[in-house]
Write a structure and sequence with these properties.
Two copies of one chain form a homodimer.
Chain A (H helix, E strand, L loop, with lengths): L3 H7 L6 H12 L6 H8 L8 H13 L3 E5 L5 E5 L6 E5 L5 E4 L2 H15 L2 E12 L1 H4 L2
Parallel strand pairs in A: 3-5
Antiparallel strand pairs in A: 1-2, 3-4
Chain A binds a DNA duplex through helix 2 and helix 4.
DNA sequence: ACTCTAACTGAAAATTATTTTCGATAAGAG
DNA sequence: CTCTTATCGAAAATAATTTTCAGTTAGAGT
């Protein structure tokens, strides 16, 4: 996956050293990372990278659907490279590793049912699963 | 619903003026409220109510499943009196009103599918819908 | 009812996550 | 190569929440 640079450019944004560093960190990550973690690792690729820029870059990547935001208990967020088409994540409670998946027809029919039951017109949802990943189950 | 006092007592907690005030605020609320809003209204019932106590009480109520936490864009949380058995909420984007609903079989089969697809052993989920409530659709 | 103790309280201070400000820098169009 | 403007990073500001701590109070035991 290298066409993120085109996505940026086509959307009118520049491809900068900082953004390259953040993308590289996300590409190499095994688990979703907090902005603080992205900063720490990103400085390995770009020594003067700043925390503010990390926040701004992560926001931008989420906006362009290149990255996804994970909600964690404790209020702080983590970010993950987005797999196209898979908008939700299962997060391992032990090691933190995450896999994305598609909501699929189950969500579609859930939404239909709730629309019928409540008369709300539903236009978005927040869904995230938590569990134990295969590796962590073995020990 | 008045047996929240028994729930507290049975769990080893005390029924205090502050807790009564917070519960009363939640019972009278039309929409999920932020801690700040709970404080403001709660002072009408208990003049010296403090913000710290509001936070602590809301945490406690969530722990005892008497209240539910709503995630909002922008990072701050809101709280809602829990309807028994209905663990998820649809939140209106315009007026903020919320209704709880049960995940039901759609979630069960989604979880089964994802367990099969990913080999994760899933033991929890975060699900929240957003939309427009019937009242707000009309104008 | 009265006492007594641990649970609870609220103000102030501390912490944590995130955003704003602003002068300096650098991407990339021409 | 130049020049415009997006972007950068440090410091300060803000917002949400938590910790600390000395004083208060619920309610179990008498």
């Amino acid at each position: 996956m290298v066409n993120w640079k085109r996505r940026l450019t086509q959307a009118g944004y520049r491809v900068t050293t900082s953004r390259r560093a953040v993308m590289r960190v996300l590409e190499e990550a095994e688990t979703p990372l907090t902005p603080e973690q992205v900063l720490e690792r990103g400085r390995g690729h770009h020594g003067t990278l700043g925390l503010v820029t990390v926040y701004r870059t992560l926001d931008l990547l989420v906006e362009l659907r290149l990255a996804r935001l994970i909600h964690r208990r404790g209020g702080c967020h983590a970010y993950l490279l987005a797999s196209p088409g898979h908008h939700h994540a299962v997060v391992c409670q032990r090691c933190g590793r995450a896999i994305e998946f598609a909501g699929g027809e189950e969500i579609d029919s859930l939404v239909e049912r709730i629309e019928a039951q409540t008369d709300y017109q539903i236009d978005g949802h927040l869904l995230q699963l938590s569990g134990i990943c295969p590796d962590c189950q073995c020990k």
